[in-house]
Every structure is written in C-alpha cells, then in structure tokens.
Amino acid sequence: MFLAIALSTGLTLVLFLTGLLVVFTPLPVALAFIRKGMGAALVVSAVSLVALVALYRLPGEPLTFLPMMVFHPSVSLRGVLALSVAYLSYYLWLGWIAAYSSRRTGRWSSLEPSVAWMTVLGLAVPVAGLFVFAVTAKMDLWQNVGTGLQDLFRRMIDLQQSAGLGEEDAAFLRASAPLVVTRFLQVLPSLWIDLTLAVLSLTVLFLRRWTREERLFPNWPDFGLWRLKEIWIWAPIGAGAVYFLNVYAVESPVLGIIALNALIVLAAVSIFQGLSVASFFFRTRLSPLMRLAGYLIFFIFLQVGLVVLAAVGVSDFWFDFRKLKKVA
Questions:
Q1: Do 202 and 21 meet the contact criterion of CB atoms below 8 Å apart?
Q2: What confidence tier does 70 reach under pLDDT thresholds 50, 70, 90?
Q3: Which letter does DSSP use for residue 73 in this model?
Q4: Which runs of consecutive H residues, i.e. helices, occur in 211-252?
C-alpha cells in the first residue's frame, strides 16, 4: 500500500509539473481510488498538495519552472501559490469525480448525463473554492490574472523584439496587449469547460483500458457507436443565429460573449462526435498500421484536424455516416 501511494503521488507531481502531460494528472489518483480505495486516494491527494506547497517554500528564490511562476512578479508569490494549488486541486478533483462515477449504474449513468454531471461538478467545486479563497484573502484573482497575462504578453513581445521584431510592430503589439487579454478572459469560461471535457475524456479512456476487469462505466456504449440525438443539431444553429443577430442588430456585449462561449463549447461537443465517427471507421476499415499513421497525421496537423472533426461531427446529424439510425 505504501509503495502504491508513493508511486501515485510521485507520478501525480511529475505529470502536473511537466506542462505538456498535465492533462493526465487525474489518472494516478483515479487509479488509486479504484484499486486501493477512497482512503488511498485521499492520502495521494493530500501529500501531492503538501509537496507542491513545499516546492514553493524552498529556501532562496522559488523555482522558475513551477506552475504559474510565469505570472511572477506581476502576481505576488502568495497569489501564484494559491493559483497553483487551485490548479492541482482541480485536476485531483477531476480524478475523484471520474473514479466515483465509474461504477454508477442508476438512471443517469448513461454517457451524456454522466459527462454533463461530471463536467458541472468538476467546475462548480473549483470555482466555489476560488471564490471563497478570494473573499477570505481579500484578493481580486480576476484582476491579478489579467495583470499577469498582460505582463506575460509584454515579455513575449520583448523576446520577439530581441530576435529581430521591428520597433513599430512591437509597439503595436504592446498597445494591443490589454485588448487581447480582455478577449481571452471573455472566452475563458468556455475554454475551461472544453478543458474539463478533454481531461475527463482522457481520464475515462485510460481508466477503461487499464482496468478492463473492473467493467467501469457499464452503461456507456462503445465510443465508435456513440451519437448525439437529432435535437442537438439545433444547439449550434441557435447559438450561431443569436451570435450573428447580436453582431448585426442587437449589439449587446454581454449577449455576444454568452453566444460566443456557447459556440466554443458546442464546437468541442462536435469534435467529440467527429472523433466517434473517425474511431468507427478507423476500427472497421483500417489495419492497425494504417490507424497509427492516421493518428500521427492528425496530431501533426492538429489545428486543421480539429476543424475537420468538428465539421464531420455536425455533418453526421444529416448524413449519418455510420448508418446508426437504421440500427436504432
């Protein structure tokens, strides 16, 4: 038990600190929950958080590679530590949610209700925690993050200027920094929802692969056969109509932000349906070698691939590429 907890804790910290693999951070605590029980998962979570705090409290200057240190000194070390602890807690919490939901068999245990429940719960608790911390510590986290992002943006411009960027272009980018940061913060809610969906999806994917004997998420279909109900097509149509109506007629900033965030979330949902279509044809039409080549091409051209998947996901409502309507 001690060895399993130590390995899970170390792996959690390594994944969290790497940056690129941070989306896999929930996996160790979720596996500890499933294989060793809630107590082991609680120990892994607590020790990971304590170890993270200890890294920020080392003698001398804090380590620059630690999460959120890019915002320092624009954001105080205390604020950076709070953001980092909240960030790790968010991933640990997603691991707990995925593990707890994996054995639910009730009325709401099918794929869509389960994902919606996990996503809402995965966001509600971290948001509430940040709000309580900000009120208790009398900190304006939103302003601190905005200030830190502007400072980070300016430092990136300075690096580009030292690499040969012209003075006029650099001045233009510096003047645009507040607007860029403001636009980013406006769509941050939808980006956070999309991140939560992606992290939960990856966690569930590997949990089901590595613990086949546990029969996790028993009421979920094979991903290649999953398809949203027809009524969902009206969600992107409605959100898009509201967005363009606001641009050309209503001109309400708040309504425009809400519609844009809704479109970004619905684009992520469409990407998942496109992935389901791709998974179906990869498994039924391609050899393992060709599947591997397809995955490599997708990751090499990731941005284009995501747009294609979103288009395929939306088009599947009309063309039913897998002929699942006939099966139903």
A1: no
A2: confident
A3: T
A4: 234-245
Tell me, what DSSP letter sits at residue 221? Answer: P
> Quick check: 108 and 114 in contact, CB under 8 A?
yes
pTM to 2 decimal places: 0.90
Q: How many angstroms separate the CA atoms of 37 and 52, rounded? A: 23
C-alpha distances (whole Å) from 159 to each of 172, 176, 181 are 15, 16, 18
Q: What is the per-residue pLDDT for 31? A: 94
192 to 174, 292, 316: CA distances (angstroms): 26, 30, 26
Q: Is the pLDDT of residue 2 over 80?
A: no
Scan for tokens 């403001």, then name that residue.
182
pLDDT at 23 over 80: yes
Q: How many CB atoms lie within 10 A of CB 274?
A: 23
Q: Give Cα 318 distance to the centre of its chain.
A: 29
Helix (H, G, I), strand (E, B) or coil at 60: coil
DSSP state of 59: S
Burial class (CB in 10 A: 0-12, 13-18, 19+), 253: exposed
Express each pLDDT in 38-57 by its tens digit. Answer: 999 999 999 999 999 998 88
Tens digit of pLDDT for each residue in 160-191?
Answer: 878 777 788 788 888 888 888 888 999 999 99
Residue type, 268: A
Quick one: angle between helices 167-210 and 141-162, nearest 10?
120
- Give residue 327's pLDDT: 57
For residue 99, give both structure tokens.
């593990």
Is 139 a residue whose pLDDT tops 80?
A: no
